[in-house]
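The pair is listed for reference:
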Amino acid sequence: MKLIYLTSRFPYPINKGDKLRSYHQIKELSKQNDIYLISLSETKIPKSSIDELYKYCKSVHIYHISLINRFFNLFKTFINNRPFQVNYFYNYKIQKKINSNISNINPDHIFCQLVRTALYVKDEHSIPKTLDYMDALSKGLERRIKISKFWQKPFVKMEWQRMKRFENLAFEFFNNHIIISSSDRNEIAHIDNKNIEIIPNGIDTNYFQKIITDKIYDLIFVGNLSYVPNIEAAKFITKKIFPLLQEKVPNIKILISGSNPSKKVLRLSNENIKVTGWVDDIRETYCSGKVFFAPMSLGSGLQNKLLEAMSLGIPCITSNLCNESLGATHMKNIIIGNSVEQYISQILNILSKPELISKIEKNGREFVNKKFSWESSNKILLEILKR
């Protein structure tokens, strides 16, 4: 099958959740299909990253969205009633180039990742198309309203309402629809949302195996540190959790690590809390901690950070929001909390009980091994595309 795979970001390097999903989908699908990658980009892509995708793709087309276009697209949001995220990635000149790509490749199927790319194939009716919603973006925006500054709230609320409508509208452009979890599917407003098929992310459990290293930190948090839900989680750890923990454990050590740390996050460091940016081997970061702590209160979708930590045998404490997509069992393969008091109690409990750490880490890895696999997820995807 000749498959056009359209993304709003170039899939490599893997430093965001959408890149992780697209990279592994392309890698698995290329085993039985010819992949023609079309990616939008805000920045110049290094040759080494392009070469990585050429391992799996017949051709790679990258279309740069200039800074001027991005500013212009911001103003269009107030005219055409579309979400900013959709306008941001849409450009008429790029549309003509993609039309030309489709004509020249003559694909058997077109695959679009995220509703941000949906407009580019809206009017293509002769070729079967699949949309990967990935997450319910509108729900993530709705959750963000409550933590926005007063002058931001009207814009975030407007974006939420427009995104909810556009997710519903984009459903009509495609033959097939997939999403990362049932909880995200339920947030898509379309009347036929039950027809959206669930394809979770996977984890490379052969790669994410425990590395023997010193346990320097009591708690670790890993994620893209320019992403608002991760920034808020980092602030929550340092402002709400750390002061209370320090009263009980004066020498407690916490690591916050991930790509693109914002200035807000960098300022959170102190004698007990270390903040680091991109590292070459994230496994060493995970394995330097006794417990992985992800108190997420915003965002949507499946948290890959939890899959990675559990695969590495790191016991995880997280929120009920995170576990909605994961589906793990409290006190068996994960620990769930929903308040400062619960988190403090659970952290102190597990840090004082080596046997509980061993139980959660063993059960967590078995859970991820059994339920989350790129191979099994993409096998389902391939069957959908073959329809």
